[in-house]
Amino acid sequence: MTDKRIPVTVLTGFLGSGKTTLLNRILTEKHGQRIAVIENEFGEVGIDQDLVINADEEIFEMNNGCICCTVRGDLIRILGNLARRRDKFDRIVLETTGMADPGPVAQTFFVDDDIKDEFRLDGIITLVDAGHVEQHLGNSTEVMAQIAFADMIVLNKSDLVDTATLTSLQARLQDMNKMAQIITTNMANAPLDKVLDVGGFDLTRALETNPAFLEPEYPFEWGGVFELNAGDHALALDTGPDPDMSALWIQLDDSATDLTTVAEQVFRHFSQPAQNVGDADLMTPGTTHWKLQLPSAVTLSLDVPLEGRYALFTQHTPEEFSIRLYTDDDELCEPVAEHYFNAGHTHDDEVGSVAFEFTGTLDPELFNTWLSLLLRTEGENLYRMKGILAITGDDRRTVFQGVHMLFDNQPGAPWDNETPYNRLVFIGRNLNREYLEGALKQCLS
Amino acid sequence: MFELNTTTLPEPALMARIVLDDSPSDISWSACGSWLAAATTSGVVHLVAAETGAELTTWKAHDNGALAVRWHPRLPLFASSGQDGHVKLWQVSHKEPGALLADITLSEDAGNNWIEHLDWRPDGAQLAASCGKKIILLTPDGSVQQTYTFPGGTVGALCWRPKGAQLAAAGYGGIRIYNVLDSRSKPQDLEWKGSLLSVKWSPDGRVIAAGCQDNTVHFWRMPELRDAMMSGFSYKPVQLSWSNNNRWLLTGGSTELILWPFDKKGPEGRKPLSLPYHPEAICAISIAGSGQRLATGCRAGIVALWNQIGDVTPTRAVPLDSRVEQLSWSPHKNTRLLASTSRYGTLSLWDVSS
Q: With an 8 Å Cβ cutoff, are A62 and B214 in contact?
């Protein structure tokens, strides 16, 4: 059965992030859709086919004081009216102010019956100004909540920062919200078909587009393979965002095929005690966990005892520290292969996401009891969650999603011959990964 | 399994059916019962003659949708309001149905100028209109007499006290009552931390009830302001209707029609009457001026007619093409005419005199 409800796209983002630019593109580009725009800044009424309505953000808290029941009164009123029109709009785009909390916006679509009957929340798009977001990340709860709630993060004004900054920003944002798709743009030039059909709350599309989330986490962000002749080499680094960085320098045998396989074999070396190395120190190939001391630009010696293939894994990306590898003759060596990895929790942001994937089936009663307790006690801190579950005794997947305390699940495709697995992502404030993982595994049958 | 037993009940006689240009946002009968005005979400007003059921005329009254239409309690004129920031007063005569009497601009703030609520003072001396958090009082010739600012954001509902000059405005945070004859008197606040979507005084003015966003009904007894809350609704109980004798408060918001006893003992600690019939939640209620007949409508589009308040089953029922939007009995004493509208835009007049 196709969902006939009108899709609603929510645009959030701090002042100056490019929301208005994107909104104007949505209103002026030819896309063949009739769009009603609900915006918070003063707007012109009726651009061509479209309708622009101005809304005052009216937060309706409920008498029970539960933030999870908080809705947006202005949306209920405006959407309720739009629903009555015979020549319905194909789509609604809702712009929020930079200070808006996406929680009540999302909840309105699940809590209010009149809205739920006629509209579906398609996705929350958060625009981020690549040049300025870093300064907001530490101190603006609004910005962090907008990133945490996003189905898609548009990293805009990417031309204003260098590649290294952009890469590290992307990693940091993905770390905060593993569920979101991140695209980089200039002048908010995101492809409209992508932005307007995210399906972020569609359970049948749960986790469909999520490359970073599906990949396991590694303690390193980058790995490169070099084909080198025997002899001394030099590893040069500039200063970067951190005063030190973990690294691994290993020789590859012939069986090593691709970097992800190698990564799987070597990542545990990073959890061993590290050995500090600084300018002019020597790194020999092996399983040693090196901690590069980077108070200033340094050049280390790399030992290459035999001709062959070597791999370098670094905690941060080469762009962040301008990592270069030179031969004895000062010739720059380019990697023959490289891979950017999904880093583990490397930034201490208050808002973050944790993802789990494990096989086995969950005891429905245990899991329900635990989840209800979690939502009741941690609902305010849990912004969004999403996942696929294997429930004992059910031959189909269970797909679920949640916003704060609101939780929704439905049966998905059958497992058939596949080994049942559980794949979950939680996004929230001060999440305790160890606790969540332990508690989840306690629920296994 | 759920069964629709509408087929077992006879349908009321259809007197007229008019296809509106768009979904109806409001309907209103003239005081004499001769005319019915319907406003639509595309801004058009339809004027219907009760005697023949014929559509006399239609015209575009507002840009960007009409939101409310309300007849004067005595004079042959009605007010309409829309998403264009205008309140318009229309005079109606048999010669000239729908002559513009006054056009009042309450807000020129484009995109932020919905005038959602209209209500005439019972003596007809003033019209209250709300635009966002502004409440404006107009005379029947269209001059602005008074402007108030509602403290709780956008006004959710307006209702005059049945006898007197007290205007209740409901919204986020409670109800504010303005004593409009004494401009120096402080308004009275009935505070409730919640979002109030509708407000209705009992006919004797001694109880004021409000339907809330969190699926509850809150009420206050006047003048002592003793308040209480009624819960258990599955939807927002926006529809509130008082029986003429003040004995019952009828509420929508659930599949059962709920009748709360407001006799001497009051509803506190007592079970209300709960009357199942509708397959989906009730979203329209109208009690005839005689105080007897009752009509209810639900989200599934079924209109049910009940002989008198308190009857446990309806006597007639009819399905509409879509969700029931409004139900309104003609105020004319000698006719038994019920107007119904549906979300898809059909206006029906039902003759239930037999």
A: yes
**pTM reported for the whole predicted model:** 0.79
Name residues 154-213 of chain B within 8 A of A (Cβ): 154, 172, 192-195, 212-213
Residue B288: closest CA among B201, B199, B350, B226: B350
Contact of A113 with chain B, judged by CB distance below 8 Å, is answered with yes
Residue A127's domain is classified under what CATH number? Answer: 3.40.50.300
- Nearest to residue A240, comparing CAs of A318, A182, A299, A355? A318
| Confidence at residue A41, expressed as pLDDT on a 0 to 100 scale | 58
Is A95 within 8 Å of chain B by CB? Answer: no
* Tokens encoding B77: 């004129």
Asked whether residue A160 falls in the same domain as residue A31, the answer is yes
Best mutation target, A51, A52, A62, A117, to test chain B (most B CBs within 10 A): A62
Shortest distance between the Cα of B77 and any Cα of chain A, in A, equals: 26
Helix, strand and coil in chain A, % to nearest 5: 30, 35, 40
Q: Report pLDDT for A97.
A: 82
Q: Do A51 and B64 touch (CB under 8 A)?
A: yes
A159 and A58 in a common domain: yes
**CB-based contact A311:A259 (threshold 8 Å):** yes
Q: Is A360 helix (H, G, I), strand (E, B) or coil?
A: coil
pLDDT for residue B6: 47
Please tell me the total count of domains within chain A. Answer: 3
pLDDT, tens digit, 9 for 90 and up, residues B9-58: 999 999 999 999 999 999 999 999 999 999 999 999 999 999 999 999 99
Single-letter amino acid, residue A176? M
First to last CA, chain B: 34
Closest residue on chain A to B345 (Cα): A86
Q: Are residues A15 and A119 in the same domain?
A: yes
Contact A199, A341 (CB under 8 A): no
Instruction: Round to whole Å and give the CA distance between A96 and A75.
Output: 11
What is the C-alpha to C-alpha distance for residues A115 and A315, in angstroms, rounded to an integer? 47
A contact residues 60-79, partner B, Cβ 8 Å cutoff: 60-64, 69, 71, 73-74, 76-77
Separation of alpha carbons A169 and A155, rounded Å: 9
**Domains in chain B, CATH or no CATH each:** 20-149 (2.130.10.10)
Q: Is A53 near chain B, with CB under 8 Å?
A: yes
Which long-range contacts link B207-210 to residues 24+ away (Cβ below 8 Å)? B207/B246, B207/B249, B207/B262, B208/B159, B208/B168, B208/B175, B208/B177, B209/B240, B209/B242, B209/B249, B210/B157, B210/B170, B210/B175, B210/B240
Query: Same domain, yes or no, for A148 and A191?
Result: yes
* Residue B282 and residue B261 in contact, taking contact as beta carbons nearer than 8 Å: no
pLDDT digits 0-9 by tens, A105-116 = 999 998 888 899
Cis amide linkage into residue B261, ω under 30° from 0: no
B68: nearest CA in chain A?
A: A81
Domain end (from A198, A214, A230): A214
The segments of chain A whose pLDDT lies below 70 read 1, 41-51, 63-65, 86-87, 204-217, 342-348
CA distance B108 to chain A (A): 12
Q: What is the mean pLDDT of each run of 10 residues along chain B (354 residues)?
A: 60 96 96 96 95 94 93 96 95 89 86 88 97 95 95 93 94 95 91 94 96 95 92 94 96 96 92 95 93 93 94 95 96 88 96 81
Which structure tokens are listed for A126? 């958060």
A315 neighbors A247 (Cβ within 8 angstroms) = yes
Nearest chain B CA: its distance from A180 CA (Å): 31
Pairing of β B217-221 and β B226-230: antiparallel
A190 Cα to chain B: minimum distance (Å): 27
Q: Which chain A residue has its CA at the smallest distance from B172's CA?
A: A60
